[in-house]
Amino acid sequence: MAIAETETDLIQYERPVSHQAVELPSINLTEPRMPLPPANKQYNDPELALEEINDLIKDSGYAVTSRRTKTTKRGVKKTVRICCDRGRTNPHDNDDDPDSEASQPSGNQRKTTTIAADCPFSVSLRFSQLTNTWIFTIENESHNHGPSPASTHNIQRKLEVKRKLDIITQQLKQGLATRQIITSLRESDPNSCIIPKDINNLRMQLNREFLNGRTPIQALLQELPKDGNWIFKYELDDDQQHVTALFCMHKTCVTMLQSNPWVISMDCTYKTNQYKLPWLDIVGFTATGSTVYLGFAFIRDEKQDTYEVVLSCLAEAYDSLGLEYPRTILTDKEDGLIAAIESVFPTTKSMVCIWHINMAILKKARPLLSEQIRQAISQANSQASSSQSRKTKAQISKEIQEQVDKAWKKMLKRWNRIVYATTPEEKDRQWEFFKENYKDPIYEPLLRYLEDEWLESCPERFLHIHTSKYLHLNERATSRAESAHWLLKHDLHVSTNDLLVVLRCFERVVQHQFDKVQADIASEKIRQPTKPHPLYKLITTKISRKVIQQMKNTYDRYLPETEDKPPIPPVCSCDSKNTSGFPCIHILKQYHDDNKSLEPSLFHQQWHLYSSGSPPPIDPILLIQDPIRVRGRGRPRG
């Protein structure tokens, strides 16, 4: 670019340029902008004619809808006037002051939008008595707006939803999320104009049709049990109006309970429904190790009385199926639930999840470990000479984090020595060793917490010296319940649904899980190793591979006896058959020395692939009983 060197050039350079009017091409509103059927074309039905016209103009970026209908004195249609979907008039276009308070929506009023543009396009369908058909007539084929994508036209989207209604409804029943349905539709039809709002509207419409004027809880208790897939029992509040506890069992839960009733886990989770009711999940596991659902409950609170209502319903299911009460129930340290278990199942042992115990200890111990290590590092850093480089705050923080993690792992290892001690004397000795290692005054609150909260209040619920006398089938944590929570919540998507939507979502997940478990068991019944070991010949395809693998691991650890393997204890003090339900190393050695195969009778029924000893199936409908009525509190009798 040349630079102005003289004053004249500078003045000429800064002189404003005059703007000349540019003539734009005129828009001919009378020119047709979209294809139309030929004039005087005949149709048998006005609704079908409207659909055919919209199909014809869809790719052009337009849509039409019926504006008004004229009828005879007898109420018979004679004329249907059709306009552009943007042909209506915005009712607020004539407002004198659009910024006035009267023109603004109130606090609770929706802030709506409109596509109305007062488009002049107009056609009509007139009924001819001579031909008994509807004749198409063009009145004004001009538009005052340009075309737009089909997804912006509500009429076009409704027509596509109508054509694909069966496909979308089936996908909704399968529990697919809206985004998954949209993706599926666009994969099969790249020109699909359906948007997420259309799917959500259809979902709400189907739900309203299912409710048929009832509340969700009324529809739940009336419709879901009709096909025999669900068993419900509930409790009402003092006014006999609102549900305070709802116990649910699917028919697959009944089947799984029949073959796996011995050890179950219970745990509550939250954020599953719009009423903010805690959800109690009751789960068990199969011979293959798969987690299965045995029941659900929505409860008002986590108090003993509420838990007793739910557990009483579970006890009735055990009684109706002719099953013995569970031998062991795993929970977190929920005092109300533990007290309810002792009340409803007096012969059942309750164990506290060892993972929850460790996490509770970590919450108390981590700040103390961090403080002690921070003091040590700060002192060492302050004593560093000026010639030595001091650490930055970020470096100190990272070092503290790493050392705290190492210190916690060491503390957890010492704590586990107490938990898994085999004799009371060993437990006391390990506890003294633990206190000796953490005798610093900073750890006094932690030691007091461990002693008061765990070692003295409930040692029989987690210490090995006590749990080794229970049948717990190697279950020591409620991680199964935690994974069950995640699985159901993952399919639920949101936490603002009513109980009906939640239960219908759960039904899909439970049925899918049941089918998978049945397929896994059926597969193990026919699969066997190509080179079977003689020790497991009689139990292959009869006992689960999971337990057989544990037998192999135990065998390989001790047998054949060599110098590099630990010696087998001379006296059998193992309780694996009574606690885990399978033979110990001494029984394995005995059968190995006798050159015999292990027998299925050596294993607990839990690990059998065939439940031949289980009672005959019972129709789930026979378990349905009258609802529990809560007697009003504080009211005088009579």
Strand order of the largest sheet: 6-7-10-9-8-11-12
What distance lies between the first and last C-alpha atoms, to the nearest angstrom? 105 Å
How much helix is in the residues? 40-55%
Largest sheet: 7 strands, mixed
Please tally the helical runs, counting DSSP H or I stretches of 4 or more residues.
20
Shape: elongated
Describe the model.
- The protein is an alpha+beta fold and 638 residues long.
- 42% of the residues lie in helices and 12% in strands.
- It contains 20 helices and 12 strands.
- The strands form 2 sheets. Strands 6-7-10-9-8-11-12 form a 7-stranded mixed sheet, sandwiched between helices. A 5-stranded antiparallel sheet has the order 1-5-4-3-2.
- A hairpin with a 6-residue loop joins β6 and β7 (243-250).
- α9 packs parallel to α10, α11 (354-382) runs antiparallel to α14 (444-455) and α12 runs antiparallel to α13 (424-437).
Core attributes:
single chain; about 650 residues; alpha+beta; seven-stranded mixed sheet; five-stranded antiparallel sheet; 20 helices; disordered N terminus
Brief rundown of the structure:
The protein has helices at 7-14, 46-57, 154-163, 165-173, 178-188, 196-211, 216-223, 251-259, 304-320, 335-344, 354-382, 393-419, 424-437, 444-455, 464-467, 479-492, 499-526, 545-558, 576-579, 585-593, and strands at 42-43, 64-71, 77-84, 122-128, 133-140, 230-236, 243-250, 263-269, 279-285, 291-299, 328-331, 349-352. The protein is an alpha+beta fold and 638 residues long. The strands form 2 sheets. The protein has a 7-stranded mixed sheet, with helices on both faces. A 5-stranded antiparallel sheet has the order 1-5-4-3-2.
